[in-house]
Amino acid sequence: xxxxxxxxxxxxxxxxxxxxxxxxxxxxxxxxxxxxxxxxxxxxxxxxxxxxxxxxxxxxxxxxxxxxxxxxxxxxxxxxxxxxxxxxxxxxxxxxxxxxxxxxxxxxxxxxxxxxxxxxxxxxxxxxxxxxxxxxxxxxxxxxxxxxxxxxxxxxxxxxxxxxxxxxxxxxxxxxxxxxxxxxxxxxxxxxxxxxxxxxxxxxxxxxxxxxxxxxxxxxxxxxxxxxxxxxxxxxxxxxxxxxxxxxxxxxxxxxxxxxxxxxxxxxxxxxxxxxxxxxxxxxxxxxxxxxxxxxxxxxxxxxxxxxxxxxxxxxxxxxxxxxxxxxxxxxxxxxxxxxxxxxxxxxxxxxxxxxxxxxxxxxxxxxxxxxxxxxxxxxxxxxxxxxxxxxxxxxxxxxxxxxxxxxxxxxxxxxxxxxxxxxxxxxxxxxxxxxxxxxxxxxxxxxxxxxxxxxxxxxxxxxxxxxxxxxxxxxxxxxxxxxxxxxxxxxxxxxxxxxxxxxxxxxxxxxxxxxxxxxxxxxxxxxxxxxxxxxxxxxxxxxxxxxxxxxxxxxxxxxxxxxxxxxxxxxxxxxxxxxxxxxxxxxxxxxxxxxxxxxxxxxxxxxxxxxxxxxxxxxxxxxxxxxxxxxxxxxxxxxxxxxxxxxxxxxxxxxxxxxxxxxxxxxxxxxxxxxxxxxxxxxxxxxxxxxxxxxxxxxxxxx
Length: 704
Hints:
The chain is an alpha/beta fold. It has 5 domains: 1-140, NAD(P)-binding Rossmann-like Domain (Rossmann fold), CATH 3.40.50; 158-304, 3-Layer(aba) Sandwich (Rossmann fold); 307-462, Succinyl-CoA synthetase domains (Rossmann fold); 506-583, CATH 3.30.1490.20; 588-702, ATP-grasp fold, B domain (D-amino Acid Aminotransferase, Chain A, domain 1), CATH 3.30.470.20. It has 24 helices and 29 strands. Keywords: ATP-binding, Nucleotide-binding, Tricarboxylic acid cycle. It comes from Bradyrhizobium betae.
């Protein structure tokens, strides 16, 4: 099915506005790169200062060309860009890439020029990439609409091609996007597209991602992002990638304060709150990598291997030390290196000298290379149902020796029965890389990255999109009457939650001591008492909490003491009274909360609760709303998950009830995102299985 960006990535004709004869400068390099990569379409240089450039007729303006133009590449001073775009629109140019810089990244009037570009795109329908972009490269269509030296063609160099599957690259930094391409090419990874999004006045990372998701020539996607502007398009593309099981590897920068400042100045947009990005990535099964070489290793493994069926790894080597190191590298990431069964060991032992080992790691020794034992061991392991992946560690420094024969290795790897990774602990020679590439092998040179890649593809193989939230479980209600102040007290917060359909214990707000007898009769002993004020969020810090009260005398004394403490420590606070409620049964303390991210909207969070929440920061976020199933997956992702599953003989907690509560709170946050900024329920006591949960404290913050 045709895509709206087909004519962008595969233009039949290109106009270079600002073209130059000087190949040392960016305008001249743009024409040079197009021609070196043998662009098959028509090229129209545009520059009033030349009659011709490199044998091509040069036009004074886009209007003088008099032929259809699919793509205009613009590299002229910033203040001349908007008039040039107007001329492009008048000439019915379909798409434009603005290489020129000096727009929103500079602020002030320059930012206003970028706004005008965006308005022009909306008004005319022309699709515009940039400004401040490095262009793009469509390898399939030989469109090098970029000045990056990474796409330069050297006629005397034989390209290294190890994969038939291709990766597509979208980057909000042109330099990094083409760095991915440059390194991928060095590894022998085939590439479909590289696109630099620039300042995203019109086209953004979301639409480029959407194009690669639907593109049949792209099998794996690499993303480098600072912040997302076209959020709805990005999320729709992420959904499609998850549904079609097309892997997306993402690097998100701007996570530190300094990084966020740099992101803001570089792309004229705040990078956003990284926890929300990670929550979105997790929801759609994106593989997160914060290292360039690691990301490429994961991409290489995905482009050259099938997904594994499990987490059992066989480590095969010609060096005992390397085998131990390889086993450690995969075990470090929670993968299993199981001892092979006696029958499988017996078959492998035949292939090696007596001083080798077949247990796993499997050391066929250096002799195994020349005897064919290495190849035959790989054959056996790819056929065995005892392991799910194979990691081969060897030295590939030789310029003449071949450890594998193409006729034997290629069919085994082409069968795609399971992932087989190859790591060289010496610097691999070009000879070895090219020879193994014929069999479809990408030689890896980072053992830690290989371990990470195996872990990531095991997890990705298990990923499936969570079911949508069951919003019908929580009845839709108008809560505006309960949002009486910017920050609600605990009592008011709980009243709002009850009104929304969330179950809470029966409690009484006592405003005068004359009401205490009735409150005690209703609640019963033992009970807890807490001062209530929208101005006192941390009640214990002002002596505003009493627990395990068992007599009426204690009730009256506590009431007076808490009021006096509050007036003493916070004389300006508005005191609503004292909340009297039953003491909850013991349980695992969990925090459930929601907050609103400026990019992605409402988020739901769960973590280890109580007073240690901020100490351990063991929390998991997801975009709201979530289903109970997805909430259960969030709980499983906590480091503290064993506490809910019967740690050290304790009773298994009621995870089902907790998951339902998380789901309901997430629906509440999403439904009332325009009214409620934050909800915090801390702690939630999770009782033994079948006994439910108890909300002990709650806080609701109104949206400004």
